[in-house]
Sequence to fold (83 residues):
Amino acid sequence: MKGIYLTEEGKKEIEDRITRLESINMYSSSINQIHQNELINAVYKEILKVSTIIPVVSDWESVSNSMTEYEKSYFPNGLIIQS
Fold:
């Protein structure tokens, strides 16, 4: 499957940047700066809109051994195993 995959942490970072850009737009006096920030903000929002958020686990064996097949179905898009 093609697309953009983000972790919850990556999603949160992008959301924080959107919030920061929106607050800059409120206090900026330069029209060009406002326009540039709005464009960047739109790009971040589009990334979030088309992204698939996948969870991160530290050890697949602990997940696979402790979960039922039903519980594993919570990961239809997979998951990231962090070493």
Q: What stands out?
A: The longest helix spans residues 8-27. Strands lie at 4-6, 51-53, 56-57, 80-81.
